[in-house]
């Protein structure tokens, strides 16, 4: 019974900490080292919330970027004649540039999927930012 209570307390604390991080990352101008150190304590749905909330606040969805969203396309799709493809712009419209979109997707792929409250048993990975020249 005590173990169960301790597990529930630990789970609630981890979820509360993740919520605090989501709120912190909504602010513009987060330094890269701070951002990378906070990734360990969130999960993919938290990261998606950060991107969505930043878009609602008219800030680029990539937490390291502090640019305002300007000239957001109104269309949902883009047709590339050269590649003969139709692209869905729903996610891309949340970012100020192609680099920020790619960098955010790169980070999203690194965010751990294990439950927040069980991560103390896992090995902490080294998160990396997408280099600017890609």
Question: Which helices and strands appear, and what pairs or packs with what?
Answer:
Elements: H1 2-24, H2 32-38, H3 44-56, E1 77-80, E2 85-88, H4 98-108
Antiparallel strand pairs: 1-2
Helix pairs in contact: 1-3
- SSE string, helix = H, strand = E? HHHEEH
Task: Give the terminus-to-terminus CA distance.
Answer: 52 Å
Which sheet architecture does the biggest sheet show? 2 strands, antiparallel
Number of strands: 2
- Unreliable residue stretches: none
Strand content range: 5-15%
Features:
6% strand, elongated, mainly alpha, 4 helices, two-stranded antiparallel ribbon, 40% helix, 134 residues
Word description of this protein:
The protein contains 4 helices and 2 strands. With 134 residues, it is mainly α. A two-stranded antiparallel sheet has the order 1-2. Helix 1 (2-24) packs parallel to helix 3.
Describe the structure in brief.
This protein has 4 helices and 2 strands. With 134 residues, it is mainly alpha-helical. The protein has a two-stranded antiparallel ribbon with strand order 1-2.
């Amino acid at each position: 019974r005590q173990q169960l209570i301790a597990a529930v307390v630990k789970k609630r604390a981890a979820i509360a900490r993740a919520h605090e991080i989501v709120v912190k990352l909504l602010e513009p101008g987060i330094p890269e080292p701070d951002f990378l150190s906070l990734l360990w304590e969130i999960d993919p749905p938290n990261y998606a919330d950060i991107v969505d909330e930043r878009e609602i606040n008219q800030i680029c969805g990539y937490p390291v970027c502090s640019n305002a969203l300007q000239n957001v396309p109104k269309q949902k799709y883009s047709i590339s004649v050269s590649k003969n493809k139709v692209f869905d712009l729903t996610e891309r419209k949340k970012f100020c540039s192609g680099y920020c979109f790619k960098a955010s997707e790169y980070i999203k792929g690194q965010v751990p999927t294990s439950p927040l409250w069980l991560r103390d048993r896992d090995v902490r990975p080294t998160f990396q930012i997408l280099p600017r020249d890609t």
